[in-house]
Specification:
Length: about 90
Amino acid sequence: MSFPTSVNNQITDSVTQVNTKVLGDAPATAMGNFMIATSQALSNAAHNATTGQQQAAVTAQAATTQGIATLYAIDTAATGTSSKKIFA
C-alpha cells in the first residue's frame, strides 16, 4: 500500500477489481454491439431487396395487363372496322 487511507484495503481492492472487470468486458460488449448493428443493417438490406422485387413484379404485371388490353382493343377496333365495311 503506497498511501495510508481511512478506507479498508478490502474495499479499495474490490473497487479496483470491479473497474478491471468493466474494462475487460468493454471489448466484448463493443463487439456484440457491432454485430447487432451489422445484422440489423443486413436485415434491412434484405428486406429492401425483397420489397423492391415485389414492387417490380407488380409493375411488370400491370404493364403486361395494359399491353394485353391494348392488343385486344386494337384487335376489336380492327374487327369492328372490317365488319362495318362488309355489312355496309
